Here is the input.
Amino acid sequence: MVSQNRRRLLVVFLTSLIVFEMVAYVTTTPRPREQFFQLYVLGANRLLSDYYPNNDPNIGVGDLVRWHVGVTDSMGSVQLVVIRIKLANQTIRPPDDLQAQPSPAPLVTEFRRFIQDNETWEMPFFWQIVNADMPEGSTRILEMQINNETHQVPGLTALDGHNFRVILELWTWEPQSETLQFGWSSGNERRVAWLQVWFNMTSSARQ
Amino acid sequence: MIAASQPSETLQPRLSKALVLVRQAEAAGATHEETAGLVLLLNKALQLDEQATGAPASDGQRKAELLAQADETLGRVETEAGQLEVIAASRTFNNSLFAYLSAGILAIVSTLAFVLGVSFSRRYRIKRTFQMRVFRK
Here is the structure.
């Protein structure tokens, strides 16, 4: 009778020990989660609208375009992120999602910052075309001003000024290789985040 | 806000080392509030690097000063991240130890509760048995 009681007690103790230790393990072990970044562009009022002055994507020289660009770090660690701003026309390739290749479009400028896990870095991105010419029925952008800093653009042309694009690419710093990489590594996968916003700069807009 | 090319070559190894140390502190269990200060310093170093890159080539002394400041800031990040990692690791270990020991104590308490429950139940049954009355039909 006594040994039966002891055996029962032992069973109760071991069962509750296993249950409570499992609870302790679950609460103290960090759960694996998906690692990713979010990249977004908002319009003048920080909404998904009003991307162009007077809602007209036909932009003239000196028209100030007000956007807000943001990145959210959900990688589970501090990251050095770089947003590269590129200007392209219709024929230049956009970034390749499958091969994780950036666009060959000319780089205009870039913005860098360290951000914490779950932190969103949002910055104003106010830009305007400050210098362009029109050789033979096409429009060529020569200078662009971003956040009051003027940047040279290596002569990007589009037929009658149609279908220019601002491409925003997310790059991250890889401490092991000490290089900037397009996108980020998530396990064995390479992932990328990029955006493009189209605009025109036709002759009617320039007058 | 910074608009420049890659971090300057002299700064790249320090920057990478500082970033790795901050990540190690995070992995050891440092909180967001604890690493926020280090991220501020990292951004300050980036800003100094950008100022050094933007400084005119003729102003070599100013450039060197800015790079030295950035280097010093990264050195501070490395030191503080190292200290933070030790503190965070010790705290995480203590928390885990407390959790597992608490689980053991809870198991003992629940076993004692079971013993008490069984004992009360037996006493109750014995009491009920002795309280029984026999009636002749």
Notes: The longest strand of chain A covers residues 120-133. Helices of chain A lie at 2-28, 203-206. The CA atoms of residues 11 and 17 of chain A lie 10 Å apart. Residues 36-206 of chain A form a domain with the Immunoglobulin-like fold (CATH 2.60.40.10).
